[in-house]
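Researcher: Re-running this chain for the archive, since the previous output was lost when a drive failed. Same request as before.
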Amino acid sequence: MVCESCGSSFPLERVRNMDSCPVCGEALWESVAEDSEEEVLSFGEGVELGENDSFDEDKIDFWWYEIREPKTYGESDPGGVGITCTSCGHLSGTSYPIARTDKFLLLDPRGYALCSNCNKELKNHILSKRPESWIDPRKRDMWVKDYENLPKCPICSSTNIKKISLTNKAASALAFGVLSAGHVSKTYKCNTCGAKF
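Model: Regenerated structure tokens:
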């Protein structure tokens, strides 16, 4: 079954007894549109939308990035979803969705997920697709940490520096003697401003 309003597809067995689309709330059957004045989001008979469930991007707890279809790894495989915590970027997994669109997955509100890194709990059972521009914060933070530990020029703060070799120091000491003390006692030379430190 495909909703004509939002284009979401659902198994016919799940939506047969439903009057409205669980994603957009529009009527699934033409006769229902005439009879009902107010559509309510629903995930099927006996399953209601929780008070924290929302399509608002600011209220999304986890993004999804991959869907493993049921029976991928054998008959007993129920399928699953690869998820990313919106707070810390930790990757995890959860159960197969009840319904889905191109951008959103609808998980069973009776389900439970918890980020094993920051302990963020899945309160909103609607997952949004992870943004294309997303960068793994662990990789981004690793670069920031490495940058903080890089030696920098004390004059211009450039990291474009070169270590003064022992050979260079020895040659200076032989050629200039006592006059090379300022060069020999330094470890690095800045390639940007020329300072030695």
